[in-house]
Structures are given as structure tokens and as C-alpha cells.
Amino acid sequence: MKTFNTAIEARKIVDELDQQSRKLNYNPHYRKYLNNLDRLINDLSDAEIKARVTKKHYVTDTPRQKLAEAIDYFDKLLLMQMLSE
Question: Is the dihedral of CA 35, 19, 77, 61 positive or negative?
Fold first, then answer.
């Protein structure tokens, strides 16, 4: 499982996954899933801003957890696709 603490680190992980997905056969579902990951990163970024302003850092816990689960799922999905080719 890939770990991250900020939206910037998560963006780097998603960019790496995007590069991996481009090396595989084209699948429109991967594009859609990557777009959803982008939305989750934006949600985390907004939560980080809110946490800094309000000094309530627990606000980022839920978006970070959702994004981590989505990244882990997509990483496993790509791994299965690589193994099947």
C-alpha cells in the first residue's frame, strides 16, 4: 500500500499510477477511475486548507482514508491487468 500525508504526495502517486496505466492496453474505465482519484485529491486538498484555517486537523482524516483506499484498489487493479497480459 502506498502511503502519503498530503494531497501533493497523493498527486505524485496518482501520476505514477497514470503512467503505469498508459503502458497497458487502453481501458476507458481506468481513465474514469483516474478522474475520480483527481476529485478525491481535490477534496483532500480542500480539507487540508480547512484544517489549517480552523486548526482542526482531524478534518483531513476521512478524505485521506477514502483516497488511500481508492489508490490501493486502483494499484491492485493495475497489477491484475499487468499479470493478465
Answer: negative
